[in-house]
Amino acid sequence: MNYGNIKFNDIANGEGVRTSLFVSGCTHHCKNCFNPETWDFNYGKPFTKEVEDEILKSLEPEHINGLTLLGGEPMEPANQQVLLPFVKRVKQKFPNKTIWCYSGYLFDKELLCENLEYADGKTHKTAEPHLVEMFINGKKQMVSRAHTPITKEFLSYIDILVDGEFVQDLKDITLRFKGSSNQRVIDVQASLKQHQIVLSPLNEKRNKDIPRRLIYNVKLAFW
Ligand code: SF4
After folding, report:
1. 104 CB under 6 A from ligand 1?
2. Is residue 123's pLDDT more than 60?
3. pLDDT tens for residues 29-55?
């Protein structure tokens, strides 16, 4: 896996002060994506053991609240493979710090897909880059390629998942942790326990400090 950037002391991507890792590779290709150069899986630099160690070191100070994974798409199958052992290390060393993850895939429909049973596991690529054809109990269905054998374990280390693709028409700059209003700030551990989506209270959090005049001017610019 490659990564495009690491932001230390980041206050924009999650609660409190965090280290944010921008991984490379994304197949969603949302219109007006804020980071299109990260769609390429080869963008940036290799995510090595030294980089992992540097991030772990950055999490040591007491005032650092945790780690945020974003991109790019952390939940692309190839990225999950690399990030799973890393998030395990982070949680083992810092059990009280939170891990946030931003993903264009939907938690319930595309990452967990718990209603699906894979009869033969045969998959076929389709024209849609994030869907695959799979035979499930003898029936051909389109399922998310992001639902892999390790996805549930990966999610067991995530505290907050901000899910859903960025939708330009639903863009709202007053939202504190989301780019567009279709996205959800999900309490992952509560959701896994209760087998239903539990939204974090942070889902509704807004940027109170944005002057009204600026919001008005931005809206005018889009009209
Ligand atoms: S999921 Fe994120 S990185 Fe990928 S295209 Fe959409 S906005 Fe860009």
Report:
1. yes
2. no
3. 988 898 899 999 999 999 999 999 999
Q: The domain spanning residue 57 has which CATH number?
A: 3.20.20
* Separation CA 152–CA 192 (nearest Å): 9
CA distance linking residue 67 with residue 72, whole number of Å: 16
pTM: 0.85
Question: Structural domain of residue 142, as residue ranges?
Answer: 2-222
**Ligand 1: centre distance to CA 120 (Å):** 31
Q: According to the model, what pLDDT value does residue 87 have?
A: 98
Q: Is 166 in the pocket of ligand 1 (CB under 6 A)?
A: yes
pLDDT score recorded for residue 109: 82
pLDDT surpasses 70 at 2: yes
CA dihedral for 5, 91, 28, 178, sign (positive or negative): negative
CA-closest candidate to residue 106, choices 167, 157, 16: 167
Residue 30 in contact with ligand 1 by CB distance below 6 A? yes
The minimum-distance atom of ligand 1 relative to the CA of 71 is 3
Tell whether the model's pLDDT for residue 217 goes beyond 70: no
Partners of residue 187 on adjacent β-strands: 160
- Atom 1 of ligand 1, residue of closest alpha carbon: 104
State which H helix or E strand residue 166 sits in: none
Q: Looking at residue 131, what is its pLDDT?
A: 66
**How many domains does the chain fold into?**
1
